Amino acid sequence: MKTFHENPQSRIRSRTLSTEPSSETPSEGTADPTYSLKSEDIELQTWGVDDTINRPNNRQRHSNLIGRIFSGPQHPEDLPPRFHNLFLQRLDELPLQVSRLVSRKVKASIILVYCLVWILCLRSILYPYLSEAPYLSSEETPILSFSCGKEDSIWQGGNDKCGLDGQDCRHKINDEIIIRCPALCDIGSKSYAAIDVGDESIKYRNFYVGGGKDEDYGRDTTLPYRSDSFPCGAAVHAGLISPTFGGCARLQFLGPQYGFTEAASAHSSMGDSIEFDSFFPDSFRFIPNTDGQCKHCRDPRVAVTIINIILGLPLIYLSINGQVAFWFTCITGFWTIVLTFDPPILIDPSDPVNLPELISLGLERFLPLCFMLLVIWKFISITTLSQPSSQIGKSLIWYPLFWVGMLNNVTFDRLPVDRLTMSDIRAMPGAITTAIILLLFTILCVFLQGYQLWKAGRIRTYLIGYPLLTAFLLFLSKIPGLQLRIHHYIIGLIFLPGTRTKGMTAYLFQGVLLGLLVNGVARWGFASIAETDESLFRDDSAGRIDAPIFSAYTKENTSVSWYEDNEIQADTNPATSAVFYSLLINDIETYRGPNSTVSIDRLAESDAEFGSLLSSSLKYNEGEVKLYLRVSRLGRKDEKRSAYSKALVVNYVSGNELTGELLGESDYRG
């Protein structure tokens, strides 16, 4: 046996060697594990050049850390939530115990009967609203179904869309109609495209001008609203229609008005109306229904949604393998959005093709969505929802948060963020702060779920895949003429793969993301991830070529002039001119032609409608009226049109005296 002192190059590797003599003597030819060393046996050696200590340097430490992050823990685990309370434990295990006692055929029969009762219940509530036209019981006055926003049958649009002097949109004085409005018009009556009102451009705000309760005529009568106001939003503002259940209201046209005052809203979820201190050629007010009762006016969307949520809960709780829960929840949520809670087209039962068209559109989006959901189930949700899992976690966390994402129009849409584009975030008040908070919250959620993926030993794929996805999105954002658009369903598609675990965070995040995905497809379809700049303008005239600029006004002949800050020059010959101009006065087109100088007095003489309005307004306002002028450049056939300019405010005084001022710089040109 070779002793330690016989090999000078040997190194002591054991820290348990004793210097005391051993009580036992090993047999020859065998290694003695208890062989002990005496102090005189140890010979100190000097280290040679090749005898360096093998200590890891910084690079090796970093490499080991990265390797550990990629590979995960030595013993991966991915366990569903567990409860320490005995009652919750038994409640969590109850569905599994019941499932063992019931055969598959009995389960299928119970589910079939349950769904049949569910469908019949919904049909009795929803079908009359979708298929039977509303009416007034005491007369044959038609009831028109309106959306919450702009209504072309009342006012076709802003700026020049109603023709000279608004002739294409004006109504006969004292004409009456009854309108049916859907639920949720407190949020649905916001304008997401800028609308000119005097020297303001209204955007991201409920759009109704003037109005409010008229205390002299009773509680169901209002003061006049400007006719370009959103009628359903105005009815909710006046307190005549419920923002939760919708309803019907009688509307009466009043003709020209010479001022519209700001009025407080009857509901705290809506803002005050917009003030306008000059004349407008058309208006309306709401008056009470004197006789009879409106039928099929109440919107059942809230009741239907509550029923679907409640009746879906037992299926989620009792579904052991998770597949039944997943498909029933997604299918129910999709058709809830399409048919009632946020339908992609206006529901108008007086139109016989409206309901078939709605169902057809739903099926067009539903079939591709089913394939997408199948992939999500096979590769993501099966891990979270199948056994072993927590029935309480699925029922009280995953399922409610699915509906939070599903009902996006009353949850996330109420945040002050419109679209995730830099132009919209900068334009909407409060959007920058909200976007920063959402970004920080998203980063926190990513780290929390990333840790669960690491614990489960699945982090490697995501550390490779998500940087590649980020690079692809950055590439799309740099394509000239296109803007990256992260729609609801795309948010779900991006983050859902990262929820492939069984822990509490997977229940939290997967439910919301799946709801956003199904909601986005049901409401908006498979919109493109990259859209053209022009498609993002909505009805805004801003974003086109620059508008002309007001340069001067002349008191002697009440003329206003403008010029273009580019090389295009207007030809003064109407027969050969390639450039026309559109002049708005009080948000109504009053002049269209090639001239870049226009006299207000001459306009009043040559245009009887405008002259009559101006004259009546001067009498109403004791000889002085404020005018708001904007101008736009048009091509011969409205091609290459510009934005409308900032407003020129003119105090027009009877006696042919004109004073005015050009507004300072503003954030938006309407």
TrEMBL record:
Residues 1-11 have a biased composition (Polar residues). It holds the Pfam family LCCL. The chain crosses the membrane at residues 110-130, 302-318, 325-346, 366-385, 397-415, 427-447, 459-476, 506-526. Gene3D superfamilies: LCCL-like domain (2.170.130.20). InterPro entries: CRISP-LCCL_domain (IPR051957), LCCL (IPR004043), LCCL_sf (IPR036609). Keywords: Membrane, Transmembrane, Transmembrane helix. This is DEKNAAC103843. It comes from Brettanomyces naardenensis.
